[in-house]
Model the fold of this input.
Amino acid sequence: MPLALTPLNRRDFFRNIVGGALAATFWGTAQNSWAAETGRDHWIFLSDTHLPGDSSEERHGYNPVKNFAAVREAVLKLEHKPQGVIITGDVAFLHGTSEDYRQVVTQVTPFTENSIPVHIVFGNHDHFDNFYAAFSNLNRESSPVAKKHITVLETPNVNLFLLDSLYLPSAETGSGFFGLEQLRWLRKELDARKDKPALLLAHHNLDNNAGTLMDREEFWNVVKSAKQVKAYIYGHTHIYQQSVRDDVHLVNLPALAWEFQSGKQPLGWSDVEISKNAIQLTLHTLSSDHLNSGDVRKFEWLR
Done:
């Protein structure tokens, strides 16, 4: 079952936070009349938010909490409410501390108060135990794979598979690992859902170098054999880019917290529309005069 941080009134929220828990529930996408009318699913994709416990913390000249707040304000002002927000990993700052996740709770609550569920994918800077300690009413044992935070979101047009590439033994190196059990689960769930296109979302990139997904070839064997997989969407690199492999789109989301190229890479969020035969991402950058501000990229299914 998916982790969907869903609506909670502010009084109950803060009462639970003071007690060390968040009263969040599983499942759900927002009721979306626009999606029903247009036949397109509507989502917000973020990546690499790196939220620190200390809201004044900066890294590479950027303040992640301020960046997140700016995006949240913009999303909440959208004319058409999205069905949910998906963050593709590294939601926590550097080490996934308890303080980081308390900040995560604070920052995502305005979404859930406005009936916008938030779905979180794990990256190498996240921490399984500390996350579940912050969201202590959630049952960590309910995951279909032990110590993996995974699910399938079934939407009108596609199935969204949220995968977990966090591998704590290699967290300092940045590497990721799905593991045999998760890949078996993925193959099984794909086999059970051949009626719709599948989009896979995780944190790590698939390049053949250090700090990437260690079992990328085993993962890709699963992808190649499942023709309904149309795209793999990920973060990690803090680079806005895309490519194609075996007729599967590889879409690298930009980071939100910081970038490493002196302003050349965009920081921002993607307003996403998904039809039965394509996904379109409109990039909203924190800096309105960035070269990529308003960039629209549409990926039609290739197989």
In short: Confidence is low (pLDDT under 50) at residues 7-28. The longest strand covers residues 278-285. The chain has seven helices and 14 strands.
